[in-house]
Specification:
Distance between the termini: 72 Å
Strand order of the largest sheet: 3-4-5-8-7-6-9
Number of domains: 2
Low-confidence stretches: none
Number of strands: 14
Mean pLDDT: 87
Radius of gyration: 25 Å
Number of helices: 2
Structural class: mainly beta
Shape: elongated
Helix content: under 10%
Largest sheet: 7 strands, mixed, barrel
Length: 227
């Protein structure tokens, strides 16, 4: 065999480029492609990324490194709960970290396909033995869950969510019911005024973290300041 230094250098690695190595189970020589090595590093979490966990979507009772609950093909924006192992696919115990994240945001995205993602607030994380129930409130996302694919779970905060958040709603047509989508991801304070900037008082009903309704005793137009 020629000396390694005599082979030309390839400075652009492609998915199907290969290395020679030894399979651990039988000690036989094998080709390992660049893509296979990259997939192994991603799925097994061998490259540590702070605040990130990896789980496989499964339709069977949850095993280590897996989550289940939603139906295969479910929209990522429609997920509200799942059953998840306390151990991720890299073998990390994630229980204390997930409990710490309750009340915070998490991004769940398909590995190697960031367009398939869901942005959630974790509302609770409760134990059922070795399996945990993760309850979520959706904030946004795109795409659908795909069975047996691997998903990254990562802490996530958009720059627009940092600092004081507010929204001004305009009710152009007189009404005694104002339906407001504010997208502030919280239960905000609400101040309402009529077209003469006189404060008006109504009953505020919080639908969820991003929607509310104000009911007034009489119809009028004006603005609502959501903070």
């Amino acid at each position: 065999m020629a000396r390694i230094s005599s082979y030309p250098r390839d400075l652009e690695v492609q998915d199907q480029d290969a290395w020679i190595g030894t399979e651990s189970g039988n000690r036989l020589t094998r080709n390992f492609t660049a893509k296979a090595v990259a997939d192994y590093l991603n799925i097994k979490g061998k490259i540590s990324i702070s605040g990130q966990m990896v789980f496989k979507f499964s339709d069977v009772p949850t095993l280590e490194g897996e989550f289940t609950g939603p139906v295969d093909g479910s929209a990522l924006t429609a997920i509200t709960t799942m059953q998840i192992s306390g151990i991720d696919s890299s073998g990390q115990n994630t229980v204390a970290f997930m409990q710490y994240l309750v009340g915070n945001d998490v991004l769940i995205s398909e590995q190697n396909n960031i367009d398939e993602f869901g942005h959630f607030k974790i509302t609770s994380y409760t134990s059922n033995g070795a399996v945990y129930t993760l309850n979520l409130t959706n904030i946004g996302g795109n795409g659908n869950l795909d069975l047996n694919k691997y998903y990254d779970f990562a802490t996530f905060t958009r720059s627009s969510d940092v600092g004081d958040k507010n929204f001004v709603f305009t009710q152009a047509v007189s009404s005694n019911t104002w339906v407001i989508q504010h997208r502030l991801n919280k239960f905000p304070s609400v101040t309402s005024v009529n077209i003469n900037n006189i404060e008006m008082y109504g009953e505020v009903e919080f639908i969820d973290l991003n929607n509310l309704i104000i009911n007034f005793s009489a119809a009028f137009s004006g603005k609502a300041f959501i903070n």
